[in-house]
Amino acid sequence: MARPVYSSFLQPATYPSGCGRREFPDDHVAPARCAGVLKADAYGLDAAKIAPLLHREGCRTFFVAQLCEAFDIRDAVGADSDILILNSLDPDDEARCAKGGFIPELNSRAQVERWRRQARANGEPLPAALQVDSGMSRLCLDSPAVASLAGDPDSSREISLRLIMTHLACADQMDHAANDMQLGRFRSDCLLFPNVPASIVNSGGVFLSRDYHLDLARAGISLFGASAGAHAGRLRPVLRLDARILQIREIGAGTGVGYDLDYVAPVARRIATIGVGYGDGWPRSLGGVGAACFDGHRLPVVGRVSMDSLTIDISGLPAHALHEGDLVELLGPSQSLAEVVPDAGTISYEILTRLGVRHQRICADGDRIVASVAGRRQ
Ligand SMILES: *Cc1c(COP(=O)(O)O)cnc(C)c1O
Known about the structure:
Layout: E1 5-9, E2 33-37, H1 39-44, H2 47-56, E3 61-64, H3 67-77, E4 82-85, H4 94-100, E5 103-106, H5 109-122, E6 126-131, H6 143-150, H7 155-158, E7 159-165, H8 177-190, E8 198-199, H9 203-206, E9 216-219, E10 239-251, E11 256-257, E12 263-264, E13 269-274, E14 291-294, E15 297-300, E16 310-313, E17 327-331, H10 337-344, H11 348-354, E18 360-365, E19 368-373
Parallel strand pairs: 1-18, 2-3, 2-9, 3-4, 4-5, 5-6, 6-7, 7-8
Antiparallel strand pairs: 1-10, 10-13, 10-17, 11-12, 13-16, 14-15, 18-19
Pyridoxal-5'-phosphate (PLP) binds at residues 37, 39, 86, 167, 202-204, 218-222.
């Protein structure tokens, strides 16, 4: 039975400075705090399993995108943690959110009004965060709405403001002028709320400079040792994706392999079919250009990536190095996410969030397995 193994080795020393084993945030952003962003099921890795590990490391602020994701991790993070909802709430979800004890980001005047109405109904102020526009124009309150909230003496009786935040459009580009421009605009909005903690950086922004750390960093992809753009390679990768060999075939010169016989062996070859395909989130664009790895050897993908399998050329290995049932590495110490990304024509975020439900997910702390979630096919 094919059983791809996905292992997320979640260790805190994923920032370039390294960090204290028991400390989260680590010294790279201290004295700022570091929040864990666990949206999209922790980037496809299983939020409910990863959240308690972060909590154990000292993380007490978690971000998700949707209300349902907040419920997914609520029991895992303990009552001493805050869970913020980046996309805020659909109309009529306010009561459920308030009852769950979650903190919505308020991204529009309508959301502010609905949350204030809920607070009046509850008869007490409700916690909220403001996501303000600093130049990205994605999901945020514009400046006049921010100013009118700041100038409204009644608002503090209804909203207990826990965070003011914004998001950088170009955090992965060290020298992009938009970064300083956004920081400047954000700082002036923060002056309206002098006692409220502020946050601007995601993983990439952490590397820009200390000026950007403010009170809280929001680390998502860097928790898994991956990063994008100029910062790629600055973190220690902690992910592995292994795939099982389903079959090994000796083929003669002139034999075609896979859909459309896209690959035709120029000479006799040994081909292994492995049990991961685009249905498991492995990009179809890696057909003919990607590779798997084994024992320091690069094993090129030959032919198309199928839905449930792909084929690799293992002729470069000694004849009995690999057998059916063995595992080869798709991501890990021999091939990082950052190395796969250019050929895949996408970004590391997309590869992670597409890893499907058929992978077994193993969460390990060093060599110790702390959580394992069986893949769908078992
Ligand atoms: C996704 C997201 C983050 C985390 O981004 P990473 O690049 O994964 O660290 C932080 N803030 C907001 C608003 C986001 O949408």
